[in-house]
Amino acid sequence: MVNAIGPQNLNSFSEASVSVEIETEDMTLNIGPQHPSTHGVLRLVAKVDGEKVHDVKPVLGYMHRGYEKLAEVRSYPQITTLVNRIDWVAGFSNEIPFIAGAERLMEIDVPERAKYIRLILTEMARISSHFVFNGAYALEVGALTPIFYAMEDRERVLDLIESVTGGRFHPNFNRIGGVKPAAGAGPTSKKNIQDLPAGFYRDTKVAMEKVIMAADQFQNLIGGNEVFKKRTKNVGVLTPETAEAYGVSGPILRASGVKSDLRMQTDYLPYDQFDYDIPVGENGDCYDRWDVRVKEMVESAKIVLQAIDSMPSGPLQAKVPKVIKVPQGRTYVRAENPKGEMGYYIVSDGGLGPYRLKVRTASFSNVSILPIMLEGALLPDLIAIMGSLDFVLGDVDR
Amino acid sequence: MEEFFNKIKESFIEVTLEFETINIKVNSTEWIESHKKLRDEFNLKFFSWLSAIDWDNEVSVGEAPKESVSPCFEVITCLTDLANNNLVTLSTIISKSDSKIDSLVEIYAGANWHEREAYEMFGINFENHPNLEKLYLPDGYEGNPMLKSFELISREVKPWPGEVDVEGMPEESESKE
Fold first, then answer.
1. What is d(CA A247, CA A253) in angstroms, rounded to the nearest whole number?
2. Does B109 contact A360 at a Cβ distance shorter than 8 Å?
3. Per-residue pLDDT at A315 exceeds 90
4. What domains can be seen in chain B, in order of their start residue?
5. pLDDT above 70 covers what percent of chain B?
6. Are A60 and B160 an interchain contact pair (Cβ–Cβ within 8 Å)?
7. Which of A36, A209, A371, B12 sits between 20 and 30 A of B36, alpha carbons compared?
């Protein structure tokens, strides 16, 4: 006999099945190491109970290159080449704290102009890093379009970095005591050194105004999107207390409402000369972390525009000995990188290279928060939360 | 900063101020207490990093210390205070033969990964750590790579060319010929 299930029967049928509790075993889900949303080769081992995730275990080390060990067999000028490759999305900003640390121990006063060039390029690195985040994050939560805009706009900034340093990702441009003469800046004989390529100011102005426009465009294109809002608002909320205990820094910390920015608090570059805001979030959710970064792009562009207008003249290099030896001592210099606090603890014994170099990277501490943030999250939110941390595996594994 | 430094001086014995960083040296038995004190009384709630230094006279990589040192591990933590921007490093000495120290995970949850890294790289045992296992290195890896006695194999195979200057640019060598 065929027992038709009509609408009248369906109700009771579904009620009956709801009341039955099915006990299932947790499934172990492996994400990565080759998953597009892991920004490299991070592997997550998660226990999945239906749609809920718990006991997430990040597995690191697929990108571990042992830079701390390699630094021990290299001289100071050689290490700048290495540190470029830690966070390759913003290679330039990795050099700054290391160079500043060596200069601090050697008691070198860097010429103002060199400091300004460093500052401009650091902010450009921040902008390009945030462009990548904007494109990639939208992609991860399901919007394909923004990454094309983001990559195109980023290219404009990378072109500028390339025109000065000769490299798009690994500039290796800083020297102890200043910066090297720019690529394509004409003759580099000692008498006639030029630093910035012709037309740099003009091109930068155009590019920075484009950045401000692009940020505005992202606010509409991504931030105004209802799907994006639904997927990020009140998802992955991080309290400032947890963030502090884990050493989470940078835009993630600021999104949780802590107004902390090393650019304002320390003096590794002359940020006190400029007028800019530090965007702070309210809820500490994924949306805020995205929002803070978009606003930061605008602030960075403003800093660059101001720096271009008030660029001091003068030499590019302080007087340094031909063979660079850093006096005995130790120092920790930290800087506000696009992803958070990056610092180098240099222990020098007066030799050609450091006795020990501890590299403190932002992403390492930022990713260590993942097990806490993903506890009890829904599976689709896992990608949204992970993406909002904006890490690079080179920065995690070093 | 000055005021904060004086306040710390009252609570700890070996304190120095250098490059706007307050360096404190403590006995390894006071490791936990000192951190608790710094967190609760001095408001240093931001855990920046933990690492170690291997002090040894005989090294197989890099340069040996110029002055003779007594072989030991130095464990260092870096703490900051986000509101007032105070920067403090805390260090302690532990012996190499019995390299163990109490874990800080109870006080600063963020110490977890840093301690795991120090454990695999230096072989320091962090007692009462919730899961002291390797962080980066593959299972079954033997040795502690960051020890000064650990050889850097790539250097053994091919000595570093950096000692001698790199080859000249093509035009230069042509003109010589």
1. 9
2. no
3. no
4. 2-151 (3.30.460.80)
5. 89
6. no
7. A371
